[in-house]
Amino acid sequence: MRSLLIQLDDSTAKRLERIAPARQRKRADFIREAVKEAIRRHEYARMREAYRLQPDSAEEADDWSSAEEFQA
């Protein structure tokens, strides 16, 4: 696993410490998950934009007109 050194302003560092204390190793996990979520959101936004610019044609789209209702 690669290590990164980041710098946070004092206000952000204090707020992070409140929700993810370093002594419990929660801070690194919290930052890792936040980065993964930011990457996922960015990738989904790019995908949505690609579909907006070039949507599926009627022939390529799934036909849901005869879909069955799911009963749980």
Description:
It contains two helices and no strands. It is mainly α. The longest helix is centred in the middle third of the chain and has 28 residues, at 26-53. 0% of the residues are buried. The model has no long low-confidence stretch (mean pLDDT 89).
Write the layout of secondary structure elements.
Layout: H1 10-19, H2 26-53
Order of helices and strands: HH
Report how far the terminal alpha carbons are from each other: 42 Å
Structural class by helix and strand composition: mainly alpha
Radius of gyration, whole Å: 21 Å
Q: Low-confidence parts lasting 5 or more residues at pLDDT below 50?
A: none
Number of strands: 0
Strand content: under 5%
Put simply, the count of helices is 2
Largest sheet: none
The outline comes out as: elongated
Q: What do the pLDDT scores average to? A: 89
Give the fraction of residues assigned to helices: 40-55%
